[in-house]
Amino acid sequence: MATGLALLATSGVALAHPGHPGHDAVSSFAAGFLHPLTGADHLCAMIVVGLWSSLTSKRVWAAPLAFVAMLAAGGLLGMMHWFALPGVEPMIAVSLLVLGLMLATRAQLPGWAGAAVVGTFAVFHGFAHGAELPTEASATHYMAGFLVATGMLHCLGIAAGVALRHRTVWVPRVLGAGVLAYGVTLLAAAA
């Protein structure tokens, strides 16, 4: 028992050492994971994609998977710094406006159209994530973090949609209207 306590007492010191293998991977993953969770714009968009998809589509995973795939593509573009994608912040605001409208109206789109809409917006969200890659972070681990967090937020939205599907019509409509209004506010601030 004394040996176990000694190991516990010293493990924090060992892990705090900046040269410790894996430390960069963990902190890079954490930075990426937290990025979508700490920005209300990203948080709303990702939950709404899952919620809308679960309420309106037989292929519940089509739009969320398209979002994650295009988020990765946009993230790579943002990390490369080859060019500045114009209108990133206004397009993120527009994404909230459109996604909020889609949720509020329970817009029924063909699977390919829903995937195209959310995928287009995901490129801009991804570019924003990628462009904010911390200097010392591992790009691979950072991207893995924001992709995992995004998938979890989509799953949260899907679960909420499944729970609400046959119970109430007005809650998703009110949530959609709120996200739409938030998008309008962000768009006005960006102008």
Automatic annotation (TrEMBL):
InterPro entries in the record: HupE_UreJ (IPR007038)
Record carries keyword Ion transport: no
Originating organism: Pandoraea oxalativorans
Keywords: Membrane, Signal, Transmembrane, Transmembrane helix
Top-level taxon of origin: Bacteria
Taxonomic lineage: Bacteria, Pseudomonadati, Pseudomonadota, Betaproteobacteria, Burkholderiales
Transmembrane spans: 32-53, 60-77, 83-104, 111-130, 142-163, 170-190
Name this polypeptide is given: Urease accessory protein UreJ
Signal peptide span: 1-16
Cell membrane found in the keyword field: no
Pfam family, one: HupE_UreJ
